Amino acid sequence: MADEFMKGLSALILGGFGWLVLAGWYNTPEFASGQLITPAPETLTFYDQMGLLLKEGLFYFAILGAFTFWVLIPIVRKAMQARAGQ
After folding, report:
1. Domain spans of the chain?
2. Could you list the residue ranges that cross the membrane (predicted)?
3. CB 66 within 8 A of CB 8
């Protein structure tokens, strides 16, 4: 179980850090205003659009990765053990 915990924690940390970096680049216009929560800029290049897409992907990777390793895999293993024990 410890390896699933570490895999989930790794997904949460790496995905969260990537999201934080990209949100800092694209959603923080100045230090004194709302950081990480302001809307993306109006004029976007192709690379800006890819960066925002990557930001969303990293967010979902962090959330779903942690959920998968911390909740889904242990539930499936318990269900398989309970089924084998019958």
Report:
1. 2-85
2. 58-76
3. yes
